[in-house]
Amino acid sequence: MNRLKRIDWPAWIGTLLLIIVFRETAVWIATYFNHPELGNLMGLLSLLVVLFLWRRLHKIPARIVDTNNKIMKESAFAFLPISAGSLLMLTYMGNKIPAFLVVLFLSTLLPLWLYAKMAKRWL
Amino acid sequence: MLSILYGFLITLVAYLLAKPCNQKIPQIPVIVFGMCFVLLLLYFFGIPYETYVAQTNPLFNQLLGYVTVALAIPLAAMRYDDLPLKAILGILLFASISAVALPMGLAYLLHMAGDDIMAFATRAVTTPIAINIATLLEAPVSLAILIVILSGVIGAAFSPLLLRHINDERASGLALGLAAHAIGTAQAWQRGSVAGRYAAFGMAVNAVFTAVWLPTFILFIQKM
Q1: Which of B58, B105, B106, B204 has a CB 3.0–4.6 Å from the CB of A103, allowing a cystine?
Q2: B81 has pLDDT over 80
Q3: B224 vs B218: CA distance, rounded Å
Q4: What ipTM does this complex have?
């Protein structure tokens, strides 16, 4: 009960509304122009532009940023069904698997390490 | 409607089981535990993956869309005045080009088919943008999605090991966002909000930049 009382409900409702309204409007506009696949990207860019304009006049409320941090921390949930599928799809690739995995492992892990080293040195 | 609810519940239970496992073994990301639990639960209930994904896809595609849009908030809240702009731009430019050239070059060296090589061009961008790029390049979209998801999972799964001596959450976050896109960003948020914000920044800027230059460049080469 105490945990429920500690939740910042106005911040949660405000943050969720902000995200849902921008995403749905962007998807609706992108679908109208026959490019529904660009909806999410349009939503991201339009919300970013609005928040940057807002930032010139006021501070972005810390409550919204904190609530969004909590949402992002649990965002792995949204990837679960598609991630589980990728593991299964791999088993159908047959004799292509070794070469496929070599390319995937090298081209992911080498850059990950290299970018982190570069960023640590230059940031 | 009921089947969507079952699919959602299976995913939720898998995620809730994965959380304490990740707390016990933080080196393995919550997403890796979660996907294993999803497959185990599907096997236990005798539900084919195709049925499960057909039920959950509309709902989870919507959730993925919200996660993409939600990235705007940490990006807008970030302080840019203390960022070394030249260094960041240098890293982003290098990352965007190498993330395309390295997997395509390796796939070419290993004599993979032309379509497969093209699908590897999308390795380092987030799924919605990878689908757009693959469509524009006439690469197999399902393979591009598999490459994007698996590389995200590999990056997130091995990041605790590879980044253990980095000791800079900004550098770890930026690298995860650039190399392992959305799944890497979700993993960076597990590390902390500083790593999460830098990962979101790296992923979003890299995605937008690659979505512009890559199709333009490849279509130009094809026309030559």
Answers
A1: B106
A2: no
A3: 10
A4: 0.86
